[in-house]
Amino acid sequence: MQIIPCGSVATVQAPESYFTGRVSQTPIIDREEPSRLRAAMVSFEPGARTAWHTHPLGQTLYVVSGAGLAQSWGEPVREIKAGDVISFGPGEKHWHGASSTTAMSHMAMHEALNGVHAEWLEKVTDDQYAAK
Ligand code: MN
Fold first, then answer.
1. Which of 4, 50, 92, 107 could lock onto 62 through a cystine, CB 3.0 to 4.6 A?
2. Measured in angstroms, how far is the CA atom of residue 14 from the centroid of ligand 1?
3. Is residue 2 part of a domain?
4. Separation of 16 CA from ligand 1 center, angstroms?
5. What domain range is 73 assigned to?
6. What is the pLDDT of residues 45-71, one digit of tens each?
7. How many domains does the chain have?
8. Mind listing the pLDDT tens digit for each residue in 7-42?
9. 18 belongs to a structural domain
10. Distance from residue 17's CA to the centre of ligand 1 (Å)
11. CATH number of the structural domain spanning residue 92
12. 37 inside domain
């Protein structure tokens, strides 16, 4: 058994190239091959969100606190809140983030395929974000 003590892993700002607004990420686990498991806590300040992106093997989000928004390409923006589980299929183009007024933190869980966890696409525009 391995215990990774709280405080031993640094929280980092999410890269500006893939996110809009202030987003912090704290790794939970990134297992070595043949495992594909990766999980992280991601915290979005109000208005903050990912860019559009896909995950080769899909992704599951567990909303730990707050309220936010998520959208798959071609579908309406949906409200998400603490306790919700959101699942995206392999290759499903989507984004997720906080609401415009409320911060949101989720645990993000996804598997790598050939070492790739995500393919990053264009930013979510203010009009797309405000469509809810
Ligand atoms: Mn995602």
1. 107
2. 13
3. no
4. 16
5. 32-127
6. 999 999 999 999 999 999 999 999 999
7. 1
8. 999 999 999 999 999 999 999 999 988 999 999 999
9. no
10. 15
11. 2.60.120.10
12. yes
